[in-house]
């Protein structure tokens, strides 16, 4: 395979959500795996719904996922290209004016359905004479422009679905230019893909029908066809479709909640495939796991609770180097021994702050039996402490007091940490140190 050039094309009409991340990550990982490039394209021709704050959030959310585009473009800055393409299609007889209002089209569709006919555009505008068109325009009607489809079967070999085809005779001629001269999604998408030399278009299966239409437009413009792949879509655990408008599982919200971006990436692309969802240490590792041919044809249910668990498991696999800067940013000047001691008890990285306070103090120790704590303090070995200190100390305390099991370990944990749960004390005790441990066993805040 030659190095692919892929793209993601979010519209800045809301914050990106986990469903957007699925398509983004499939493209990014495909490019990474095959030594290709990745284009960020802002589909921002909808002036009413596109907002600057959503546009600004897109690169921030991509950076959080670890995605860095090789190039970026805005469709709002490329209107001259779309105008030129529309003019070429008009000249070739493939773009024709239509004058029906939205209400008229809706009534026509309802009549067709009532007669048992497919609700597709009947090409009535093609039958208008020049005089009839002039009369309609004299009434103040402005045309929208439809692309004249060839009524033929369009086929392609899909990276996900395999051999695919759509009968274009079952489709309405798509509107490429609105009455006000603005462009819906279809024509700008085709023009940009051709102009930028996009080699692979990987997107959701809701675009399968669009692909047949776009293939015809690309051919009419004389462009080279990309390779297409259509992955299944994510739904909520209840089967509801994800939506920017409804704010489902936005990347911004997940980031603010402290979810690990690698967990988001892994669950976004491994859910709904034949590959097991698992923690990964890097996007490079994930790129090696993802195979588009392994994606199921059925919708993939995204379980928010599974993301919580995967995020924690991802943290538990990180080495210290992967989190050192993030811990420092949280005000935790941690060391590798501290990280290795506490990581298995974290649901969020920010939870490390609790265990840093336990180590550094001061804490209020929990002393239920002062005599037992005093006896344990008297047996505490001299420093230096290491991973074996806890075992030798508790053996000595058990021999002296007769305590064993929970009666031995729980009072010591509560005295040393102020809590009844947490990381292994074999790892925490050397971090706490002898001086603070003795004070805590004596019931002093330390």
Automatic annotation (TrEMBL):
Single Gene Ontology MF annotation: glutamate-tRNA ligase activity
Source species: Bosea rubneri
Database matches in InterPro entries: aa-tRNA-synth_I_cd-bd, aa-tRNA-synth_I_codon-bd_sub2, aa-tRNA-synth_I_CS, aa_tRNA-synth_I_cd-bd_sf, Glu-tRNA-ligase_bac/mito, Glu/Gln-tRNA-synth, Glu/Gln-tRNA-synth_Ib_cat-dom, GluQ/Sye
Subunit annotation: Monomer.
Catalysis performed (reactions): tRNA(Glu) + L-glutamate + ATP = L-glutamyl-tRNA(Glu) + AMP + diphosphate
Alphabetically ordered keywords of this record: Aminoacyl-tRNA synthetase, ATP-binding, Cytoplasm, Ligase, Nucleotide-binding, Protein biosynthesis
Residue ranges annotated for the Glutamyl/glutaminyl-tRNA synthetase class Ib catalytic domain, each copy included: 6-308
Annotated TM spans: none
Function as written in the Swiss-Prot or TrEMBL entry: Catalyzes the attachment of glutamate to tRNA(Glu) in a two-step reaction: glutamate is first activated by ATP to form Glu-AMP and then transferred to the acceptor end of tRNA(Glu).
Entry's EC annotation: 6.1.1.17
ATP-binding among keywords: yes
Binding-site residues, ATP: 244
Pfam families: Anticodon_2, tRNA-synt_1c
Residue positions of motif 'KMSKS' region: 241-245
Membership in a protein family: Belongs to the class-I aminoacyl-tRNA synthetase family. Glutamate--tRNA ligase type 1 subfamily.
Short motif ('HIGH' region): ranges: 10-20
Chain ranges of the Aminoacyl-tRNA synthetase class I anticodon-binding domain: 375-442
Protein known as: Glutamate--tRNA ligase
Localisation per UniProt entry: Cytoplasm
